[in-house]
Amino acid sequence: LIHPLIPDWIVPQDYDAIKFFYEGAPQGYDLPWMAWVPALSAWLPLILCIYFSMICIMVVLRRQWIARERLTFPLVQVPLAMIDEEEDSTALLKPFFKNPLMWVGFSLPFAIQMLDGFNHYFFIVPEIRLLFDPLLLFRDSVRLNIFVNFAIIGVTYFLNLNVAFSVWFFHLLSRFQTGLFSIVGFQVKGHNEALTGSSVALSHQGMGAMLVLVFAIVWTARDHLRRVCRAAFMRDGGVVEGDSDEILSYRAAVWLCIGCAAYFFGWLLYSGAPPLTAVVFCFGAFAIFLAIARVIAQGGVGFTSSTMLPQPFTVYTLGTEAIGWKGLAAISLSYSWAAEMRTSVMASAANALKLAHNNRANHRRLFWGLLIAVVVGLIGASWITLYLNYTHGGINLRQFGVPSLAYRFLEDKINNPIGWEHIRPRLLFTAVGAALMGALIYMQHHFLWWPLHYIGLPVSDSWVMGVAWFSVFLGWVLKAVIFKFAGTRGYVTYKPLFVGLIAGQLMGGAVWMVVDFFLGEMGNVVFVGVR
User: Fold this and answer.
1) Could you tell me what percent of the chain has a pLDDT over 70?
2) Residue 242 clears pLDDT 70, i.e. is over it
3) Of 5, 84, 123, the residue nearest 407 (C-alpha)
4) Would the pLDDT of 239 be above 80?
């Protein structure tokens, strides 16, 4: 059913290379690089183009997000604090490491993770569980996870109160909507797709909110984007707004992005996607990437996920007849790079640009640093994936959860065609999410008294919010109490405490990763504080 639809140049053709990739190779079998050269030659340039286009988009939006809108970028607070200078620049230790409040915050999560790690080796050491029994609501059809993560609490402290409130409030609202639909027996025809929201309705509702968020990003930045376009396409553009503090000139960023987009579009066409399918898929994918980058830059959640993926978005926008079987195969294979999008190069580039802006780094050199990181990362990931699969067998590794989704998705859409009866109700909920998001953005921008920020709505029903919401709630409460009784001075005073919470959580996981590596131990999961 599936194999005839997959172009030969996308996948290896050597039978033994494929079999041993899944089952593990016999001893003495060298990695079959020659069997993989054609496939890697097809995929690596595509991934490079996708990543470069993400970096270029962030270059274009950097000034708008950092200098004009002044987004908080909570994830950069720890590295900024660690490299902050004091008056005596010759001091051996930075002020970050001399602050006792930082060490108080650091000690709590670090000590808990040390205990949990020792418990893995010695059962007599007590384990401190930070994942509590979930709350079951609406006749046990909805579960609210109660989980404490100190890093998320620390990051939340650097959010505006209305933003933090939005993140956890909209998750509870989505849980209420799911429970209400369950109680009344409301269902949308068809089934929900893997790695999307908790229901069909909420998955498409979240996508509608993301599309409006992207529109709002572009509309708010319209004056800046007009200047960027003039700098890119007109000879005197550089006079309009200087780009000397960007890692790429606007002209280079725009033209590189156009070139990468053209290659990406042509790749999809050559792999079997019809032109309209390629357009809708590219639009959906980059809308999701941009929305996630904005949520991370403004909402502070270290990683998040979309309630919709570009593959089902394309199918439920056009229908399977318009896409065709080869088009379905082409977009299904994109699960390899556009599936469980907890974060992306776009979000990483945005945070890197924020760090460079705050420290007046050599911006042109930063571009080459990002380029080297992407190339080294792709080469390393390719090698370690082949090594692990041929050593242990791919079917024995956790990573094969997502790759198998590509073929299940393709098989499902071939055997169960999607028509207007499936598309109509999904478009309705997409419109509902878009209308809600549009109303929230309008209220936020036009009424100072409006308390509810919009940033939490697009990702409210994602599984990540299901894990993180309670920690965000705790961070919001702590910051609100500090502001209530100590004001702005108290906020500044207690910042090192919350930076320490983040650093302690991360360092605890890092220590056990090194220890487990040298001891050859597996299964010692301490980073999230729960097995």
Assistant:
1) 94
2) no
3) 5
4) no
- Please compute the mean of the pLDDT values over residues 363-392 and round it to a whole number: 91
Between CA 376 and CA 380 the distance in angstroms is 6
Tokens describing residue 493: 């005073």
Structural tokens at position 311:
């593959």
Residue 155: in which H helix or E strand, if any?
A: helix 150-156
Please give the Cα distance from 247 to 239 (Å, whole number).
Answer: 18
pLDDT digits (tens, 9 = 90+) for 252-289: 999 999 999 999 999 999 999 999 999 999 999 999 99
**352-361: Cβ within 8 A, 24+ apart:** 353/58, 353/59, 353/62, 353/66, 353/247, 354/66, 354/73, 354/76, 354/297, 355/76, 355/79, 355/80, 356/247, 357/62, 357/66, 357/67, 357/245, 358/76, 358/80, 359/80, 359/83
How far from chain centre, in Å, is Cα 182? 29
* Range among 79-93, 123-137, 266-280 rated most confident: 266-280
Q: Residue 320 and residue 330: Cα distance in Å, rounded?
A: 13
Query: 329, 5 in Cβ contact below 8 A?
Result: yes
Count of all residues that appear for the chain in the document: 531
Closest CA to 197 of 206, 209, 189, 184: 206
SS (H, E, C) 80-139: HHHCCCCCCCCCCCCHHHHCHHHHHHHHHHHHHHHHHHHHHHCCCCCCCCCEEEEEEECC
pLDDT over 90, % of the chain: 73
